[in-house]
Amino acid sequence: MLIVLTLVLVPCLAGLILLFLRSDFLRRIVVSVTVLGVCAVTISLAFQPMPLNDAGFQWHRHDLHWLMILGEIGIGLYVLYIGAVRRNILAVALGLAQGVVIGAFEFVIATNVHGTQPVYVDKLSVLMALINGIVGGGICVYALGYMRDYVETHRDVADRRPLFFALLFVFMGAMFGLVFANNLLWLLFFWEITTLCSFLLIGYTQTEEAKRNAMTALVMNLAGGLAFSLAIVWFYLETGSVELQALITSKHGLALLPAALLCFAGMTKSAQYPFSRWLLGAMVAPTPVSALLHSSTMVKAGVYLVLRMAPVVTGTAVGVLVAVIGGLTFLVASLAAITTPEAKKVLAYSTIANLGLVVLCGGVGTHAAVWAGALLIVFHAVSKCLLFLCVGVVEHHLHSRDIEAMSGLIQRLPHVALMMLIGMAGMFLAPFGMLISKWAALRAVVDTYPALSFFIVFGGAATLFFWTKWMGKLVEGSHPQTAVAREVSLDESIALYALTGATFLACALFPLISSKLIEPYIAGVYGQTAFLGEGNNIILGIMMTVVMLFPLSLALHRRSARIVEPYLGGANAAEHGAFLGMGGHVEEVTIHNYYLHTIFSEAWLARWGAWASAALLAALLAKAWL
Amino acid sequence: MNAWMRVVLYIVAAPLIGGLLGGWDRRISARMQSRRGPPIMQPFYDVLKLLQKENLAVQPLQNYYIVFYLALMIFTGALFFGGSDLLLVVFALTTAAIFFALAAYKVGSPYSFIGAERELIQMMAYEPMIILTAIGMYMATKTFYVHEIAGRSDMPALALPGVFLGFVYMLTIKFRKSPFDLSSSHHAHQELVRGITTEFSGRTLAMIEIAHWYETVFLMGWVYLFFAASPALGIAMALLVYGFVILVDNVFARLKWQTALASAWLVTATLGFGNILILSAWR
User: Which of A371, A499, A590, B17 could make an S-S bridge to A530, C-beta 3.0–4.6 Å?
Assistant: First the structure.
């Protein structure tokens, strides 16, 4: 039990200390020590017998409860203040509504919710905690180096690093609390802290755009928070309990509306259509924030909740609608990713798409689907984090997020480009984890609702296109470039190499992750479990070896071929990569990727994606209500 | 015959069969155009000649990608004939194709770049239907394993007429045959020059050619799988489909990539999904 408290409180405490540290040196020490400690504790947590609850842990629970209520009131007042200052009626209305609902619940309806277990830790919680601790910790270390450069290059932005790092750690602590909480009120409390932290982090630069996008994120997540509160009240009125475990194990009929509302909340947080806008807007923040939001915290909290609801919604119309919204999000976001040349935006769309796939798995809700969903969360966290951090480094060097500007990056920043390629391969290519999980998702869907495979096959094809053309841009060699002397700072390179290692390790250890963490959870909930056949593991192993040979052969390459000029219609100029154009002028070869604007338009996809999913969401809530 | 024997047989015999099919293709195409055409063995002569040529490259590393393309293509077929999971086979195929595209990107010449870009569009066009074919076979036979599908006494084709037609449609794209010879055409005298293979020569081009033979045999094996309950019918259908693709190649002019993508997805959504939905409603 102590271990759980440590994981929640230590990051928060570190955050508090960091808030008052202006020395970069001391900050580095505090951040490194905390991250190392948190990683060690989360790993040791993985070896504890599960499930862990707080039986025999009695001290001050009542005080903690009141402390939490105070915290909630604080958050609520701050939200109202922000809403009033920015003159955002929606934020004020949502904040007030939630305040009324929760206030009425705490002080009128359920004045004495005793006998509940605030904490319940099972293997799924451990899995989420590992991601949060290791990937999130890596991001915090990376941020040390990144923010130092950021402050130097962005003179116009006020240096608010103490606040920045404090928020990163509070965020991390809240995420731990979120995955360990069993009392839904506690879960909501941590949920709201992550909302607030993301609001503050997205608005870090305090430019007009940042403020606006932060507000969008706040409003959308407040809507989710309101749904969450309603779910708690409804469930309490029906059953007299506020425990997550009680909700999961209760009968379909009683828990369906609360589960639908919680799925709604999960979808706002994990940026499913129609709420995808806030995650796209969150790119204005410094890169570590994007990495944190996209990989280890925030959006993962949303899909975590949806996966938790899977046993309740499985086999119901509500479940199918959740799955369709997830599938639609996967398809639309993947198509949208084709249309944009902006690197961070492509990553954001890909995150939204992959979360959609997890939501789809949660909605289908069979044991095989939840297994696939949990795998997707793990593999996505590692690869996506690596990609964001790499793009952050590239942005420093190129002063651009444009994919077209990354042409031939493998010559200029060989290490970072190679890591990016590994990250991308991790996102969609055999034999890396994401593909294994997509495969598992596909199989789960075919066994239940074959029609849902529509979204996966078309979305998957789009994924293939936008990743490969980006990879192509990185390796392309139309113009010779010289390598940059110092690609990354020490803190950054520690995080990058660790994550690259983790991408491979997650694949190599995949059978272990599955058998030690995911399968026990699935078996505990469903009484049966899913796994890949023995033969398939072997084949994947062989394939992994084949592809791993690739970087090796690059390292050992021999220049046996005679190097010649490319074919340029027979009009090559003397310089490499130039040709004689009209009137004998020497012209540079320029090549651009396709963005298929004539077929898909980003605005069109955003509009129709939002409308269609909003209609589905309305149907979902109506269906759960009836 | 056990799985390893089949794999070895595939690795040894596939290039021979693939090469012969290629020679047959050129012969028939020539007859359709009132020419005599080369001898059936011509593809082998071509590859032998390519192997003796000097090794040229624009980028030092470009040929390595092709090595992996060939290795993964052989691997794909080996998985298939070894009787493995169909979805896994599709993913291996995709990985192989991506290495091919990356090789062309690596070169950085405008012609190969456009070729690579179009190749990706073609992949995006055919991939949904290929995965759907695997799903359809699963729904018809309750297994993804090739050896179990092949061992059944009923024909998947009977339950999957729409999926079969869709699959054949995708074959014309996969073989880069007219009207879908977008990324690389057999004829170098056009706007794309030689597209994705423009900058590959000698040994490397020979490898691409050999990979193509393996691919042909693997895809024909999949056609056979639709009719595996009756081996004679299976082989006849595979040859018939191959002949059909040649006929289409000679009859049609090239389409734009937009049309290729839209039509392929339309075929997938109607023939493929229509079939799957009816099948799932039936069961």
Answer: A371
- Helix then strand then coil, in percent of chain A rounded to 5, is 75, 5, 20
In chain B, residues with a C-beta closer than 8 Å to the C-beta of A564 are 56-58
The structure tokens 């293709």 sit at: B25
pLDDT tens digits along A233-290: 999 988 888 889 989 888 667 789 999 999 999 999 999 999 999 999 998 999 999 9
Q: SS3 for A120? A: strand
Residue A563: phi and psi, rounded to 5, are -90, 130
Choose from B66, B95, B276, B280 for mutation: most chain A CBs within 10 A.
B95
Q: Do B106 and A589 touch (CB under 8 A)?
A: no
Count of structural domains within chain A: 1
- The predicted-structure confidence for B85-106, as pLDDT tens digits, reads as follows 898 899 889 999 999 999 999 9
- ipTM reported for the complex, 2 dp: 0.95
Nearest one of A275, A281, A310, A282 to A297, comparing CA atoms: A282
Cβ <8 Å between A567 and B87 = no
Q: How many residue pairs from chains A and B have C-beta atoms closer than 8 A?
A: 183
For position B58, what pLDDT does the model report?
A: 86
What pTM, to 2 d.p., does this model score? 0.95
Residue B61's pLDDT is 80
Is residue A349 a part of any domain in this protein? yes
- Contact residues on chain A for B106, CB-CB shorter than 8 A: 472, 475-477
d(CA B136, CA B126): 15
Question: What is d(CA A11, CA A8) in angstroms, rounded to the nearest whole number?
Answer: 6
Domain that holds residue A584: 314-531+575-626
* Interface contact B102-A554, CB threshold 8 A: no
Residues of chain B with Cβ-Cβ distance to A554 below 8 Å are 61, 64
| Cα A44 to Cα A48, A129, A130, A504, distances in angstroms | 7, 11, 10, 22
Do A136 and A172 touch, CB atoms closer than 8 A? yes
Say whether residue A576 is in contact with chain B using an 8 A CB cutoff: no
Nearest to A360 by CA among A461, A261, A254, A448: A448
DSSP A596: -
Question: Lowest-pLDDT range, A561-565, B20-24, B162-166, B263-267?
Answer: A561-565
Interchain CB contact of A475 with B (< 8 Å): yes
- Round the CA-based radius of gyration of chain A to a whole number and report it: 24
Window 356-415 of A: residues touching B by CB (8 A cutoff) are 408
CA dist A365 and A313 (Å) reads 7
Look at the alpha carbons of A212, A213, A214, A220 in this order and tell me if their dihedral is positive or negative: positive
Tell me if A328 is assigned to some domain: yes
Question: Residue A516 phi/psi, 5° resolution?
Answer: -90, -30
Instruction: Please say whether the beta carbons of A324 and A616 come within 8 A.
Output: yes
Distance from CA of B216 to the nearest CA of A (A): 21
Residues 6+ apart with CB under 8 A from A422: A386, A500, A503, A504, A551
Do the chains contact at A472 and B101, CB–CB below 8 Å?
Answer: yes
Domain ranges of chain B: 3-282
Which residue, among A76, A65, A78, has the nearest Cα to A98 in the 3D structure? A76
CA angle B262-B264-B268, nearest 5°? Answer: 115
Task: Specify if A61 maps to a domain.
Answer: no
